[in-house]
Amino acid sequence: MNVADFYPGDADEKRLNSGDRPGTHWLPPECDVSIRPGWFYHASEDSKVKTPDKLLDLYYKSVGRGGSFLINLPPDRRGLLHENDVKAIGEFGKRINATFSINLAKDAKITASNTRGNDMQFAPANLLDDKRSSYWSPDDAILTPEVTLELKQPVTFNVVSVREFLPLGQRIEAWALDRWEGGKWVEFAKGESIGNRRLWRGAPITTQQVRLRIVKAAASPALSEFGLFAEPAPGGGTAANQ
Fold this sequence. Notes:
Blueprint: H1 13-16, E1 30-34, H2 52-62, E2 68-72, H3 83-100, E3 109-112, E4 146-164, E5 172-181, E6 184-191, E7 198-217, E8 223-229
Parallel strand pairs: 1-2
Antiparallel strand pairs: 3-4, 4-7, 4-8, 5-6, 5-7
Helix pairs in contact: 2-3
């Protein structure tokens, strides 16, 4: 988006929701929500605080789509956060931490259909090093590459995290995920943009291989993360060890 086209405080919502290619600035979406029906404290809303499940759903629809998630927590008449709000946000935080504390792909063998100049600086292993400053990228002419995770043993996951290397811009316009099943690849997810972060969340999948396919890109893709995670299962533990 070319910010020179606007004056301070002005916004073209249609363009903000889609962006311009090529733009001069990357503008992340901001998702504001209150933990209660309103923005201020009302005793009548003490029983209407959003549940941890609802907060998780909002997290995956905001952070999981490349945005920021701003939660309003209004103080009550004591100047404190109400116990119901604290309980809900605390449980939400515990579940997020439990989900993303272990990347099940951390020790996987990772390969790519192409690596830029066969240079280790752009190797697919950069997707598993927990560093936002490193990335994998194919040669300029390769717009639809693939990355494959081969795990040491079958794992169960229900969340996949992918990030682009944003200093080079948001390049990917379509992607797909496959699992290895019955001697062949089976697609289980697909989408459009990735950007700052894309979180796929679905029913638990058990497999030993996962493939990310870039279906369409405006320029050679540059990715900094590819991870597999499991949400805590009811009653404790995670989907990966039930």
